[in-house]
Amino acid sequence: MKKQASDMSRRQLLKTLAIGSAAGAVATVSGQALASTDNAEVTAKQADGYRETEHIRSYYDSLRSK
């Protein structure tokens, strides 16, 4: 009977390692996905908004002179 008990603990160890590896892979992939999402949001926020550049100022000046 002892032999059967040791087989069960070995099986339990292998199951635990398999589940732990899968959970680690999921955590890594989801962490990378979140990191790339944060960068995309920051870039999108920076792209939004009005920026008055030199060519826009010259266009406004040309409208005032008419």
TrEMBL record:
<feature type="signal peptide">
    <location>
        <begin position="1"/>
        <end position="35"/>
    </location>
</feature>
<dbReference type="InterPro" id="IPR019546">
    <property type="entry name" value="TAT_signal_bac_arc"/>
</dbReference>
<dbReference type="InterPro" id="IPR006311">
    <property type="entry name" value="TAT_signal"/>
</dbReference>
<dbReference type="InterPro" id="IPR014177">
    <property type="entry name" value="Formate_DH_TAT-contain"/>
</dbReference>
<protein>
    <submittedName>
        <fullName>Twin-arginine translocation signal domain-containing protein</fullName>
    </submittedName>
</protein>
<keyword id="KW-0732">Signal</keyword>
